[in-house]
Amino acid sequence: MSKFQYDVLVIGAGGAGLMAALYASKSANTAVLSKLYPTRSHTGAAQGGISAALGNHEEDHWEWHAYDTVKGSDYLGDQDAIEIMCREAIDVVIELEHMGLPFDRTPEGKIAQRPFGGHTRNYGEAPVRRACHAADRTGHMILQTLYQQCIKHNVNFFDEFQVLDLIIEDGVCKGAVAYEIDTGEIHTFHAKAVILATGGWGKCWSVTSNAFTLTGDGAAIVLRHGVPLEDMEFFQFHPTGIWKMGILITEGVRGEGGVLRNNLGERFMERYAPTLKDLASRDVVSRAIYMEIREGRGIDGKDYVYLDATHLGRERIEKKLPDIADFCRTYLGIDPAEQPMPVQPTAHYAMGGIPTDVDGRVIVDANNTPLYGLYAAGEVACVSVHGANRLGTNSLLDLVVFGRRAGIHAAAFANEIELQPIPDNADDPTRELVERVRTSDGDENVATIRAEMQKLMMDNVGVFRTEELLTDAVEKLKVLKERARHISIQDKGKRFNQDLLEAIELYNLLDLAEVTALSALNRTESRGAHSREDYPERDDENWLKHTLIYREEDGSYRFDYKPVTITKFEPKPRVY
Amino acid sequence: MAETLKIELRIKRFNPEKDEEPWWGEYEVEMGPTDRVLDALHYVKWHIDGTLTLRRSCGHGICGSDAMRINGVNRLACKVLLRDVAPVVTVEPILGLPVIKDLVVDMEPFMAQYRSVMPYFVNDEPPPPRERLQSPEERERFDDTTKCILCACCTTSCPSFWARGEYVGPAAIVQAHRFIFDSRDKAAAQRLEILNEPDGVWRCRTVYNCTNACPREIKITEAIAEVKKALLFSRL
Lengths: 576, 236
Ligand SMILES: Cc1cc2nc3c(=O)[nH]c(=O)nc-3n(C[C@H](O)[C@H](O)[C@H](O)COP(=O)(O)OP(=O)(O)OC[C@H]3O[C@@H](n4cnc5c(N)ncnc54)[C@H](O)[C@@H]3O)c2cc1C
Ligand code: SF4
Ligand code: SF4
Ligand code: FES
Prior knowledge:
Number of helices of chain B: 8
Bound molecules: flavin-adenine dinucleotide, iron/sulfur cluster, FE2/S2 (inorganic) cluster
Structural class of chain B: alpha+beta
Strand order of the largest sheet of chain B: 2-1-5-3-4
Number of strands of chain A: 22
Radius of gyration of chain A: 22 Å
Oligomer: heterodimer
Strand content of chain A: 15-25%
């Protein structure tokens, strides 16, 4: 066991964490803790692109980008934050290029851009080329480039250190407690500021594009410390996951001209979104696929449709979408140049998360009261720029824009204050948790409970929701949580004990599943990704507001609300 | 469709907290027709023996966590369909790096070699206000080596690396190549100098194991040859 001291601690080494670390380490003594080697982070799986109104192919303006983002969010995004993101997009993408990021190029040598769902010219007229890309490996290039820069600038890394708790006292965050995976040692990291960048929690669902390690640790930890989570009912289902496996097929396929077809061969998106068709926003397309399946037009009557790229030609597919072609060959045994791909909506992205202001500071109530010393950025955070539905390519953008802002602000904060004292036994709760799990001897199995939770969330808290389904989910999750108290694990050792860590991750997933179901039950309207069949309309009068869910000491929950910031764009009906 | 696959899994196990010697764990599992080796390993871990230890994250060949020797060849467990290797599947940790536990090896020596080749963009000239221009052809020049996910499949299948752990190894050369041939970068000469050292590119005997092992289908031996050629023709 050891104690470490830093000015700024970054937890998570995906795009958001690395960008924050690069900036914080310019002026403050910074360390990055990550449960994975940084380059294993799921940012590396992002395929399609990062948006910025560079206008490299055709006229574009950041204001158009802001409008699209607001509309995509179904008017729940905070427009001040959206304006910041879309304006800084241009400069941050150029900065990535200056760091060496190998974007694809136009014939004139500029960064190449492709169309993407929901991104339009002139306030909705027609698709625009705004997604900057490096083949279908944009996230890989961002992750690699940022990590390379961290090496260049000697950033301190603690790889395979899993954070299990934060040290929060009297409204101030003073550090974190981490488990060293290799040795099983528990270490205390004492710091002036902590930036959480632990990513999403797609593993709450059975069909997901998310990594096995995306278990929402950061969000679950702060929830237990009384910090609210914002807009948890909004979880994006990406329309095109590989059937049953969930592996993502980027929207870039449709950006390049691919189309969705039902069992009649019909291009059904023409009916649901006459203007943007297959490039309508994700919630719209996912619902359309479910409607087709429900009406018996899934392929062979099953729960999938086809994504057809055969007309694009082999050369274009191999050049622009090489990894997609590889996935199809490896996992489906098909050639996308000749056969359509079987797809179904896949749990993809958390719009909700830890509430922050535009500098990444975590806030704890509707009055924007900050929790001093604590920051969040990336998918775990909710600024909120994505509102009820995120546009493709806006997450990578969110990571770098708000990762950068959080890094700058946390370092400045750290340089202003003294290190606050912490008690010697700040790691006691973590030691107790680890010992309890290590010595557990119940008769429940972690993997079984996890699989039941994932199926329940898929069936009851998926694309379409009703009061009945959600009430049932809430009740069943309670039972699963109770059963999870009676697990046992087989690995009692200290070294690389993944058995133990998977159990702790299950606790995190169960908490997040529960607040997702509760928030979804609570919101009696349909907006963006949250589609209530019993309340099919958007209800601005009652629900144009952010949900905050708090966990009380006794384990019960309480709701509060935060107004949406509206600057330029008044809510309008949303048609594509 | 509904056929199942009977698999006999043989996994090389070693937990230094308990075992003096590595041993073979044998498990019979029934898996689905499209399941991967990773699914079978998970099945064992989740339902038979929770102490089985391996790294994995993305589950679809992108993060580079789960390199292992599968039936004697280095592969990512999440990219190998069981039906292609059934019915007897032997899984061992990759060779040449210290085993931490079961299929988990110490990646630090590998990462140190990676860091040694200046694997980052260098250009100290003040950047233009917009992007540095690069033609599609210049971009294409180093495209192949940008794909590397640092999985170590190549380096740990290389006989020269097995013979001498100090050899920088194909993965680090691939990473250096990505920058040496980037028209925007200015540190090619320094990287070439590093690779010209006794444990640099010249230890490569062009055996092609690395290229065959790469899950990203990078033409590694070709990249190494290009680096050697650059060394021969640039008077350092
Ligand atoms: C398949 C796929 C494709 C996508 N494509 C696009 C796209 O084209 N464009 C776009 O804009 N967005 C895309 N997205 C979304 C976007 O990639 C993610 O939202 C984003 O990468 C999340 O980044 P992050 O930095 O927040 O977290 P991640 O990259 O997920 O990183 C999380 C980090 O936290 C660490 N961590 C987690 N828990 C702990 C803990 N307890 N202790 C210590 N460390 C911890 C992990 O080790 C990891 O380093 C895609 C997402 C997926 C899944
Ligand atoms: S080609 Fe060179 S680097 Fe690759 S395996 Fe052979 S000796 Fe090793
Ligand atoms: S070159 Fe290929 S095999 Fe080697 S580390 Fe990179 S991706 Fe893995
Ligand atoms: S789990 Fe990511 S490459 Fe296999």
